Input
Amino acid sequence: MKKAPIYPFPAIVGQEKMKLALILNIINPGLSGVLIRGEKGTAKSTAVRALADILPEIQVFDNDPFQLDPEKEKEEFHSIQAALGIQEKPTLPVVTQKKVQVVELPVGATEDRVVGTLDLEYALKKGEKRVEPGILAKAHRNILYVDEVNLLDDHVVDVLLDSAAMGVNTIEREGVSFSHPARFTLVGTMNPEEGELRPQLLDRFGLCVNIEGIQTADDRVAIMERRAAFDQDAETFSKQWLEQSRQLADQILSARKLYPEVTVEKELLFEIANTCLEVGVDGHRGDIIMLKTSKTMAAFDGRNAVTSADVRNAADLVLPHRVRRQPLMDIAENVQSLRKRATA
Amino acid sequence: MFTNLYPLAAIVGQDQLKQALLLAAVNPLLSGVLIRGEKGTAKSTMVRGLSQLLPELDVVQNCPFGCSPRNGDVRCTSCSQENAVHITVKKQVPLVTLPLNGTEDRVAGGIDFPKSLQQGKVVCAPGLLAQANRGILYVDEVNLLDDHLVDLILDASASGINRVEREGLSFTHPASFLLVGTMNPEEGELRPQLLDRFGLCVDLKGEEDPEKRVELMLRRESFDADPTVFIHQYERQTDMLRQQIVQARQALDLVQVSKYMRGFISELCVENNVAGHRADLVLEQASRAIAALEGAHEVTFDHIQQIAPLVLLHRRREAEPPPPPPPPEQDNQEQEQQEESPQEENQEQQQNEQESGEQDQGQQPPQAEESPDEQSEQGEEEQPVPMPQVEKEDQVFAIGSTFRVKAIVSAKDRVFRRGSGRRSRTRVAQKNGRYIKSTMHQNGDLALDATLRAAAPYQKQRGSQDGMAVHIHSQDIRGKIREKRIGNFLLFVVDASGSMGARGRMAASKGAIMSLLLDAYQKRDQVSMITFRRKEAMVNLPPTTSVDLAGKLLAEMPVGGRTPLSAGLAKSHEQVRNYLVKNPTGRPIVVFLTDGKCNVSLGQDKPVPESMLLASALARDERCRYIVVDTEDQGVVTFGLAQQLAGAMQAQYFKIDDLKAESLVNIVKGQSV
Output
């Protein structure tokens, strides 16, 4: 089957904040997800798909529903086989290459589909366990894209965010207890007019971006032109951007390598702590994520030290949805102004 | 399993919670710790850390309930048999997280499907309570837990024994565990029975000190970089803590509490006006645990004072009902005036509408602009005159004080729905919720007990070919019917005409709506809002779960103009119809906030009869439930139009005060729910 052509990531006009947040999360999945709040038709899913497309392929076992890493997760592979009661073959399965996928979670998804479940009818008739892996298994080492995350059932969101934070998914149903690794980049989108996420769930998303349609006429024209060119001849269009795509992919890869070496001066750590205190965030998740974000930003830039600008930029992505508020208040739009008000 | 856990010793700050957890680990009689407060304050991390910290347990090998091999301890049926041979093995203290959506059979125990079929008899599968025996049961967001699960846990934690009696199962096993719950009070309160079950309660806050916050970030980052090395760094401290716990556990029995100290404890409890005696008992046990941790042999004042806040925090009651939060100034003023001469006003209203309007004007200098409006309006009620060309300036009133509202639920029926929330009970087409009975209908949610019963009569005929003890054919399969609470659709229809602006009515009404909205938020309802004033009704807020938005709109809602009640009724019908088209199984609840007075009609009829006619037409739709909240001043004489309206549409009728959960009058009584 021929795949539908994918719009090249660098060709997306504007929406810099969203693009940056996505890239940062790809570099460091420890940022635990991006929440994109905003209107329809602002290239949200295009951007996610495009980003996945330029990423290097991952290695997996052939036909493994849990997408384990053949190098680092051999142990897990054995324990899952044992838990499922599968007779182990003497040799490990063949290793193949696979593209990073964007796994979508539909709004109507039930918990069974997300977490995975035990096929009871099969168990009844054959007397054997058969676990049907859910979407979280599929999302391991991939990108999980949840459209309209605010319309999902609360407990489904809970399960999602728990797995995203812990990197493990546990199926606990009908007498089955079974775990498998589930580390993925979580991307959620929502339209705030249709209802907010509960603050607890909001807080679990590492980064949050508010996006709106682009207002300048020039950019809007550019969007139309590029889209038209892409629709007309996707192949030629993609070729034009190939070089830039490759550059970005290289940049992401080298940032991943650089990340552990990035250092932060004591002074900047205090700046992070003080920013969080001044704007008034609940708990410490804000601080921790902000530190990680600034480090990732530095790594993405090819630097091995965090600067004050990194911290400021990180605040814009990390804090807006964390500022303390009453249940019936709006989400903060602008962190800098909040901070000014707090210090004044 | 796949993760390394952050060590408890490496947690920065949060000393109170650390202490509470250690105490509960030392003295099992404390039975639980409730953590209230902000998210992102290392709650789960600390509880997980605690389970790592505790010394390993001696357990009977292969006992699913983790029974102790020591004679004299409470044990499960198989372990307590006289001739049972116990092989002792070491086991890590179990930490069991209770998922919010757990099913009853998963929590309390159910049938082991594959084994039952292979062996041909019912085999029990231990639930989470069995797993948690002698360990920690951790419930995140315990206030959002389903009621029937709360009951199960309460029962087990009170008696230390879990009894399973359902689906043809009957077994008992020990289930004593340390219950740790977290909650955010904004999301709804905990039931008092469950609240009391937690021995200690800690209010958590983030660290305020930047130094500590920096330290915390650094530790977390180095943990994430290499967990193994990090854990190793803290090994010595972890060992020390572990030692401390072990020693304190041994010393606990030796700690004495003098009579004098007991007197002090009971004095403290009486002073704080706690309910029942659990506080006294817990406080004594907690101070003994502190003394044991510190290596003291006797409980001192200091010990008691140290721990008293944690014990009394969630049990303290005010001697009198707590004063309502100070309402906004404007509101205050109005209320005072209202209190000054309600009697007078009402008499005058009775005498003459016109005059009463004038009276308002005299009494309310700050509201002068609005009074003439009302005057003309009330005059019109008698004899319709052409609308005044110039509308008076609109006013925006602050939101009055809020309160907890009475339970409003829609009736139970046989329709299956999907969704989550916490308002009305309904049958659900999902796999969570309580299993109430089985059905022939195959819905993918298999009911094993019923399936086995259905297959039982045919076992002889079917014979054995495949080594299975039980032979199940497709026609035997039964599905479960489950029930749980889900959110409703609440439509607010608010009278925003000038008459509502008088004498603080609007502030009070807004307070009432706000209270209902907060309630709707906690129950995860969908809300929508319609206001009617001047000539028409408007949908201010299309159906949304964003109660935030509704609250914002409410605060900005202007008041003024005449009262087109009929238009409001018609609009509400339109909105309900649209909703029902989209959600055929939905059961909307429509809340009218009005004084019932109206002076603008849709057609040629007079406003009042027209609205009554419309109201009775609305009552014909049985899928929708109506509630009328009367905002009229309650004096000696009232028009009671809202009550008539409620009668016409067969609605439940409340006055604002009746809505309050504390008020004694039970309006719901006598309602066909």
User: Anything to note?
Assistant: The two ends of chain B are 49 Å apart (CA to CA). Chain B touches chain A through 70 residues (CB under 8 Å). Residues 28 and 157 of chain B are 11 Å apart (CA to CA). Residues 320-391, 664-673 of chain B have pLDDT under 50 and may be disordered.
